[in-house]
Design brief:
DNA-binding; mainly alpha; 2 domains; homodimer; elongated
Chain lengths: ~190, ~190
DNA sequence: CCTCAGTGAATGATCGTTCATTCCTGTTTA
DNA sequence: TAAACAGGAATGAACGATCATTCACTGAGG
């Protein structure tokens, strides 16, 4: 197994175990076993378990961003662009339940809070505040969507998506493509003027 | 200290420590210390740490329900009733950040998932599916709100609220009464026909 | 023969839980 | 009235389990 493969195997094993059992019941011993390496090997690739956990999250974030940008055109009207992004995200979660579970675990742990705080502080970076920011800011100045703080626009858009995705993945409801679109449109209704 | 007082002290200490540090960094030894009792005493009131954690959640749930029912009249129009409930919940979270943090931790842990699944299965109980259910069902049949599965209506209503509350409590935004109302109304917009 | 990635048993810390003991309070006995 | 007693509540040291992490060792490749 090549070096990069081994690293990926550890990342994947961490993703799976944390998603299935939570952070506390994903001991390094199990991660190593599932990755097909020895426990000590993890520490040749990552300084600590904490660093490993953050690395998994970073990977997921970039993976999602590139997925969402497929088929996204700046020329389309607001509503269409919004529905594209939001329903795209929901569909991604539906297709990748393990990744969704991991992200949720991460967000609601000390890791995630610290990570988020860091990101908020370094918010000058225009590369970071990406497509969503741009879309919302434009929408506000052009008076297409409600004049609310950016953070709240995010909450109104993605709060329901997260909640819906969780209920789908836990099996409390089954979402098809039509429902996904309906939900994205309902989110739009909460934003539009 | 009377018996009931001691039980309450343990519940309160658990609430605080879990909210501040998470489930894994709230060991029984610390809970006992903050409650002013010995570690072993916890097991005179609760069978296990798991049971203690669920007991705290149960308490919070009933406390919130009674709070929300204050000033709630079945005669008011749909939109008004909805805004009352939703903005009431958000205001409750703003006023009780520790309780909010605890509830979030609980929901995103194996405890919460199991708890929720149990509740879903025993859903015949009409007492359980309370004011919200009633409101949504009425709204759907009277064609005031969108014809979506009940679960999704919950997600659209409370998903943003949870998300907004978290950002307020983490200090990423400051909410005043006016904003709370605006948010509740935006949620209504996503539900209404 | 040298190098270094890989190994996994060992380590020390910490966890939830237990249980022999002590403490406290109300009742009985002298 | 005081002393002796009884029994449940409270205690906290101790236990076994489990965790993240380490490091002396191994062996394959150059």
């Amino acid at each position: 197994m090549a070096r990069e493969e081994k690293r990926d195997a550890i990342l994947q094993a961490t993703l799976e175990l944390v998603a299935e059992h939570g952070f506390h019941d994903a001991p390094c011993s199990l991660i190593a076993e599932r990755a097909g390496v020895a426990a000590g090997t993890i520490y040749r690739y990552f300084e600590s378990k904490d660093e490993l956990i953050v690395a998994v999250y970073r990977d997921l974030e970039t993976k999602i961003n590139t997925t969402l940008l497929r088929g996204y055109t700046l020329e389309a009207p607001f509503r269409e662009r919004f529905v594209h992004l939001v329903s795209g995200l929901l569909q991604y979660f539906i297709d990748s339940p393990l990744e969704f579970k991991y992200i949720e675990q991460f967000h609601h742990s000390p890791y995630g809070v610290a990570f988020r705080r860091d990101k908020m502080l370094g918010q000058d970076d225009p590369e970071d505040c990406n497509i969503y920011c741009e879309l919302f800011k434009q929408g506000v100045t052009q008076q297409v969507i409600k004049d609310l703080p950016l953070v709240l626009l995010f909450d109104l858009s993605f709060g329901p998506i997260i909640s819906v995705a969780r209920n789908h993945i836990l099996g409390f409801i089954h979402l098809d493509a039509a429902l996904v679109r309906q939900i994205a449109e309902a989110c739009w209704d909460s934003l539009k003027r």
